[in-house]
TrEMBL record:
<dbReference type="InterPro" id="IPR012340">
    <property type="entry name" value="NA-bd_OB-fold"/>
</dbReference>
<comment type="similarity">
    <text>Belongs to the eukaryotic RPB7/RPC8 RNA polymerase subunit family.</text>
</comment>
<protein>
    <recommendedName>
        <fullName>DNA-directed RNA polymerase subunit</fullName>
    </recommendedName>
</protein>
<dbReference type="GO" id="GO:0006384">
    <property type="term" value="P:transcription initiation at RNA polymerase III promoter"/>
</dbReference>
<dbReference type="InterPro" id="IPR036898">
    <property type="entry name" value="RNA_pol_Rpb7-like_N_sf"/>
</dbReference>
<dbReference type="Pfam" id="PF03876">
    <property type="entry name" value="SHS2_Rpb7-N"/>
</dbReference>
<keyword id="KW-0804">Transcription</keyword>
<feature type="domain" description="RNA polymerase Rpb7-like N-terminal">
    <location>
        <begin position="8"/>
        <end position="64"/>
    </location>
</feature>
<dbReference type="GO" id="GO:0005666">
    <property type="term" value="C:RNA polymerase III complex"/>
</dbReference>
<dbReference type="InterPro" id="IPR013238">
    <property type="entry name" value="RNA_pol_III_Rbc25"/>
</dbReference>
<dbReference type="InterPro" id="IPR005576">
    <property type="entry name" value="Rpb7-like_N"/>
</dbReference>
<keyword id="KW-0240">DNA-directed RNA polymerase</keyword>
<comment type="function">
    <text>DNA-dependent RNA polymerase which catalyzes the transcription of DNA into RNA using the four ribonucleoside triphosphates as substrates.</text>
</comment>
<feature type="domain" description="RNA polymerase III subunit Rpc25">
    <location>
        <begin position="83"/>
        <end position="141"/>
    </location>
</feature>
<dbReference type="InterPro" id="IPR045113">
    <property type="entry name" value="Rpb7-like"/>
</dbReference>
<keyword id="KW-0539">Nucleus</keyword>
<dbReference type="Pfam" id="PF08292">
    <property type="entry name" value="RNA_pol_Rbc25"/>
</dbReference>
Amino acid sequence: MFYLSLIEHTLRLPPHILHLPVDEAIKSELETLFLDKVIAKLGLCISVYDIRSIKGGFIFPGDGASTYTVEFRLIVFRPFIGEIIVAKLKESDASGLRLSLGFFDDIYIPVHLLPTPSRFEAIPNTRNQGRWIWDFGDAEEAQSEEPRFVIDGSDPVCLVILLQKFP
């Protein structure tokens, strides 16, 4: 789920942050550039873990900024296919569920991927809001109350990663 990735990047430090110590200024600029961004074939960048090396400090003609080559490690989120993740319900409507991991709120489960048989119950006086109910009981059972699970945000939701949608 979480990986430590080693990256080398040529970084331009703008003049207005050169009053800070070099390592603090570089970490601040790296966080601005990378955090909450998805890097192709790597994942969602969560945090700058550490800075391994800083080389350079060149100022090119006509530019007031210094340029460094920085080697650093990032903590990235990239779940593997088949992984089970526990999330919280953020939003529920007739088209599906939107879930949150706390640091990542863009997990969407469309209707066709919800367990069957499931049904949507709209909440009166709300626009397209409601709750999903998963009826998982056996239809042949002669019980008056079928076993069911209400997805309303009171319990965590477990989901299985079926595909990765990182570019």
